[in-house]
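Notes from hallway chat w/ T.B., transcribed later so I don't forget. T.B. wanted the structure written out for a chain they're using in a teaching module, and asked if we could keep both sequence and structure tokens in one place. Agreed to drop them here.
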Amino acid sequence: MNDSPPELRASIGRDVLEMSITSALSLLALFLTDILTLTYVSRLHDEAMLAAVGVSGAVALVEWRFLDPIVGWLGDASASGGGTRPFLWLMLASSVAMALTQACAQLLRALGDSRRALAVLLVAAGTLAVLDPLLILGLDLALPGAGTAGLLAAAAGGAAGLWVVKRRVGLAMRLHLKRHRRAMAGFARRIVRISLPYTLGNLAMPLAITFMLGQLAAFGVSAMAGMALMDRVLQVAYCLYFALPSALVPVFSRHLLGDDPGPGRASVMAAVRLVVVHGLVVWAVLLVAAPALAEAFALSAPARALFETLCRVGAGAWLVIGLDFIAVSVFITLDRAWWITLFSWLRASVGTVPFVLAGAERFGASGVVLGMWGGHALVALASIATATLLVRRARPARPTVADTGAGASPDARSLS
């Protein structure tokens, strides 16, 4: 795979590293909004509230009518029952504003303006950092305060994003359909060719998480609280992994689609090394930091046992899952996005249900989560093998929407 000159491999490695770190920092700014909310809610010393914050991310991706059953999983008769439902409604509303924030950041990143893209996301994080303690603790609004802070922070990020994009690219508030109809139709077809299979694939994960949470809820609110903390730790620890598709697709498109296969393979190997090194470092850090984190978030004994077990064992599965994000980037770059749909639904079905049930039966609460992660890692191995074959067989191809990353026009490359 490394049949390129050392100087070229070093240059490609720096390119992969720079793009990955920049994208990861932007994503980390978003994840920190969740971490801040969880931190302040934990100071209320109510594990039911802590669990409610951790179910909310999955709820935002299912229909509104499922809110009542999910609140029931948390125990509506608990002290936090009255605040759980408003919190979840507010978080659902904030997801719309946060989608706008993300869209603006992605547009700026596609233009090569990563600094302003990061600034837009930092507006949301900074707003939450101010409002969370004020509303949750200062005004004693508890969960509704957390939801309100999240909604206002997302709205601030969206407003900032629109303002920056308007100044940066002259975003028009009115669209002349007749004048731009043909161009829009062409762009729409190219975007849909990538976004449709990618979106269909993304629909699978919320279902897998919802099923896992349903099984985990049977072990009580302490298990849900432990998972809520684990979820936030994963977001921070593996934000580099989550950022890989947006970071790697522009890099891969410059090298995998060229006449010489060497640079393309070198870029993939640079990404693999980054994932492996990062995964091993995170695993070591989690082994050391897990007890202190459990203590800092005031987890009860059952929640603490779950959290520390996931930190010790689960990081191994996540190293393999991290490599799967590289495979996703390869599928997008080579215009094979339907592989993403296939493997996503395999993960959500055969890679989730039997492993979660078996894990719950044999190992209890920790087995529920580890079962899902283990099943996903096995499916990831098949995805990685498929992507490897595609890279080895890669030939020069006509430019696709992947050339600019996230659906931007190929002309945008001249602006970056």
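Follow-up for T.B.: The radius of gyration is 22 Å. Might be a good example for the class.
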